Amino acid sequence: MASKAVQVETQRDKLERKEAAILHAARSVFVDNGFDGARMSEIAKTAGVGEGTIYSYYESKAELMLAVLQQFWDGLTLEARNVMAGVKAPEAIKRLDALATYHLEIVIRNADFINLSFALRRNNSEVSVSRDHLRQYVSVFDEIFRRGQDRGEFRPEFLLWHARDVFYGTLEYSARSIEVVADTKGNDRPQKPVIDNLIALFANHFGTSDQPSDMEKSSEQLNRIEAKLDQLLS
Amino acid sequence: MASKAVQVETQRDKLERKEAAILHAARSVFVDNGFDGARMSEIAKTAGVGEGTIYSYYESKAELMLAVLQQFWDGLTLEARNVMAGVKAPEAIKRLDALATYHLEIVIRNADFINLSFALRRNNSEVSVSRDHLRQYVSVFDEIFRRGQDRGEFRPEFLLWHARDVFYGTLEYSARSIEVVADTKGNDRPQKPVIDNLIALFANHFGTSDQPSDMEKSSEQLNRIEAKLDQLLS
DNA sequence: CGAATATATCGAGTGGTATTCAGTTTGTCT
DNA sequence: AGACAAACTGAATACCACTCGATATATTCG
Fold this sequence. Notes:
Two copies of one chain form a homodimer.
Chain A: H1 2-37, H2 40-47, H3 51-57, H4 61-86, H5 92-109, H6 111-119, H7 124-150, H8 160-184, H9 191-205, H10 212-233
Helix pairs in contact in A: 1-2, 1-4, 2-3, 4-5, 4-7, 5-7, 5-8, 5-9, 7-8, 8-9
The structure holds a DNA duplex (30 and 30 nucleotides).
């Protein structure tokens, strides 16, 4: 009985190892050549299996690509959570700063992949799965923002998804802009100003007015006024 | 001589008409079936030419698609300029509101096309052209924002492209979110709150403090008080 | 163990489609 | 009109994702 179970286990492992090999090979070939440029034959050769074998694991080239994308997004989500776990500051603004830095870096490095995620919107069945993984990923933002609202850092009346759209939308679009800028000049790190701008924007627009800027100005002014009153009174 | 010139002219016209017919047919077939689903044979039949003829106008299916996309963006740019010409208000904020409304509507309706514009990033030669057309399109925003800075509505220290990234990035991402929301509920027009939010954000973050927010009202009052004190002191 | 059965793998073959090209039509010039 | 050029055509080609019958490998059971 026990030996039986072990054998079944190893067999399952073997299949899983093979599936992983296919996925790994597919990923590398897709990255190198894009979706259309990738040959199933090359993926098979790289994975060390016959072409037909791939089709006993994945129904089609598109579904294989989808599996690769899912793995990709899952990895991103995991790493994002890791990054956030490493940020000790409790302030939502600081946490968003860290998340934005991580995300922008990733988006720039994996622009092709991310574009493909959205470009694969044709066969609807495929897309729906991908959507879940995307939702997983953005939930990292969601948690931070909600907590920020709970802590009184962000105004409670804002809808979560509006803030999310501003956050991810700006970063994704910026990634494209940065690519263009980087192509033109030999610029090194034009990313920081983008993030600073976005974070300032969040503090301004979504933040409660406890922010130091205007408030401090007024209170300085109040101090001056009080001093002047003292002058008058003395 | 004269007749010669005329004949050359009509011949050229004929070619242009044929090219236009191909482009028109291609657009319709691409819209109906997507890039992969479109058959060159169907495009040829629709345009009323042989399959081979297409290849004397466009080198490949991808390049044909690119031509369609360029025409598409040019049309968008033209219409955006028309819309803006119809907006009489000089305030940059109001003009951005109109532009955002137009753009969001367009992005939602032509999501497939717009995705494809970015998805076609493979053969680099093709892409570069598309980039110019995109730049044309966003220049509508650029002019409004610059003018807003000149008029003192927007702070001059902000980089144009940061503002642009926030604007278009948020709208594009929102378009995707709205699609999801619309799929889920039978919601009618969830677009307005998105735009209101974006415009308020622009006023807050990029705007000069001439806005009459509560904070500023108090600070104006403080200014008046301080001035009166100065009067007393002098 | 070894036969019987089930499961996994393979790669040559199939079908479908973008692209080519030799032959044909259409237009132009003298 | 006849010679030359330009434009056009669709049958033939090339290329690939995907299928399927044959083969190898694992599992079950007498």
